[in-house]
Design goal:
Order of helices and strands: HHHHHHHHH
Number of helices: 9
Distance between the termini: 26 Å
Structural class: mainly alpha
Strand content: under 5%
Radius of gyration: 20 Å
Largest sheet: none
Helix content: over 70%
Number of strands: 0
Length: 180
């Protein structure tokens, strides 16, 4: 089980890290339009990367468990892969943020305000966005806040894929066709 978790967790982590590093040029010049597109692409990459969880659970079930796996064991495999991939993501983002994009929060907040102004948001809503951005910057200024916000960005995707995969792949006993 450890080998499966390590292998698939490292693959997921490396894919997510490469994606982040490739995205640096796009994050430097973010606008309201590109922010929405970037979020869509980012979550799509996360979902596709974490789909490795399904294949990891299935491989472990079929190769090491004789075609049988409980929901709990399948969920643990997926959870650990999600945690490893998410840890790579957090560390990669920390490197990128500190080394390449130290003004990212300013760029991101400007894109949020630009989007609100573009859609004709009232002044009260723009003031609320400014307040939320200020709170976000405050949280991002601490190591724990930075890591927590970044983890909350990615881990739920991995947990969702884990839950669905564990439900789809759990099998109490091998099919009679596999026994023959």
């Amino acid at each position: 089980m450890k080998r499966t978790i390590t292998t698939f967790g490292l693959i997921a982590g490396i894919i997510l890290s490469i994606f982040l590093f490739v995205s640096i040029p796009f994050m430097k010049h973010m606008t309201a339009e590109s922010a929405a597109t970037s979020m869509f692409i980012g979550y799509t990459v996360q979902l596709l990367t974490f789909s490795l969880i399904f294949f990891a659970i299935r491989q472990f079930r079929d190769k090491h468990q004789g075609g049988v796996i409980s929901f709990g064991k399948a969920f643990r495999i997926g959870l650990w892969i999600s945690l490893i991939g998410s840890a790579f993501y957090v560390v990669s983002w920390a490197i990128i943020y500190n080394a390449f994009l130290p003004n990212y929060m300013d760029v991101w907040s400007a894109s949020q305000i630009q989007e609100a102004v573009k859609r004709g948001a009232p002044a009260a809503e723009i003031a609320e966005i400014n307040e939320q951005v200020a709170m976000g910057k405050e949280m991002y200024s601490t190591w724990w806040g930075f890591a927590g916000i970044t983890l909350i960005e990615i881990l739920p995707t991995g947990l969702l894929v884990t839950l669905i995969s564990a439900l789809l792949l759990k099998r109490k006993r091998a099919n009679s066709a596999q026994l023959a």
